[in-house]
Each structure stands twice: as structure tokens, then as C-alpha cells.
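quick q for whoever's on today - can somebody do inverse folding on this one?? i tried earlier but teh output was garbage lol. C-alpha cells:
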């Protein structure tokens, strides 16, 4: 695996030995270890030392550490930009067996919002996209429909 970085950061970062580790979301991230401490490449590039501040990979690729792909985020903002998980291929969509339809919902500010039941998975995904733009703004990760 290889990490992508900007030319201006390459020399400094290349003086360390980096390796890819899997994240909780199935993505991989570049890290290094020194004196029993782990350093994340994306945090070093943006010079983020405050543990309350997270670094979001805008395109979802944890090994793309070009500055145009990185942005500081709160935990909530970072969670808005996650990829789909579960049985549906779309974010915020699940099959509601009792009704034989697809249910859409979204979380924002520690609250769940029910968006409705839909005949198709794509209709539910479109409803999620509309709500994601409203609730998550620039951090919205939209379904590719």
C-alpha cells in the first residue's frame, strides 16, 4: 500500500518509516511509531496536536494525504463523511422487512431522524441525500446514484 502526499511534504515525511494500518471502517491509514507512541500521517501534515480535533479525508481514502483531501473536523463532522455500512449499498438506507419497503434515516446532533419508507432503495437513498445536505452541509457524504 502507498500513501499519497503533496510534493512539499514528501521529503520531511520520507525521513520516517510509515506503514498502513486498518481503521474501524475498513479503510487504511498511514502511521509511524516512535518511543511507544503512534503518529498519524494526516495529523502530522495538518499539524493537528489537539486530540479533540479530528482530520477528515474528504474523499474517504485514508491513504490520500494530500492537503486538498484533508480538513479539520469535529467527531460529528467526521462521522458525517463515513461510507455506507450494513445490508444496503447506500448510506442511511435499510430494508424494512415488515413493510417490504426501504427505510431511510439520518443521524445529526445525536438524534435520529426518520425520513420515511420507500418502494425502492434508490428513492430512499435520494431522501437520505437531501437530508444529508441539510444536516451535514459541506461534510455530507452523498450516495452515488
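ok took a stab at it. sequence:
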Amino acid at each position: 500500500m502507498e500513501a499519497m502526499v503533496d510534493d512539499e511534504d514528501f521529503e520531511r515525511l520520507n525521513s520516517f518509516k510509515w506503514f498502513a494500518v486498518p481503521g474501524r471502517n475498513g479503510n487504511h491509514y498511514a502511521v509511524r511509531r516512535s518511543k511507544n507512541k503512534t503518529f498519524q500521517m494526516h495529523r502530522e501534515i495538518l499539524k493537528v496536536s489537539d486530540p479533540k480535533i479530528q482530520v477528515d479525508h474528504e474523499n474517504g481514502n485514508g491513504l490520500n494525504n494530500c492537503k486538498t483531501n484533508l480538513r479539520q473536523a469535529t467527531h460529528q463532522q467526521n462521522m458525517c463523511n463515513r461510507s455506507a455500512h450494513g445490508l444496503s449499498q447506500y448510506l442511511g438506507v435499510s430494508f424494512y422487512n415488515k413493510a417490504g419497503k426501504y427505510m431511510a434515516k439520518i443521524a445529526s446532533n445525536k438524534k435520529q431522524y426518520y425520513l420515511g419508507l420507500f418502494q425502492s432503495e434508490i428513492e430512499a437513498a435520494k431522501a437520505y441525500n437531501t437530508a444529508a445536505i441539510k444536516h451535514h452541509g459541506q461534510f455530507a457524504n452523498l450516495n452515488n446514484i
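fwiw Helices lie at 7-14, 41-46, 75-80, 121-136. also The two ends are 29 Å apart (CA to CA). so keep that in mind when u check it
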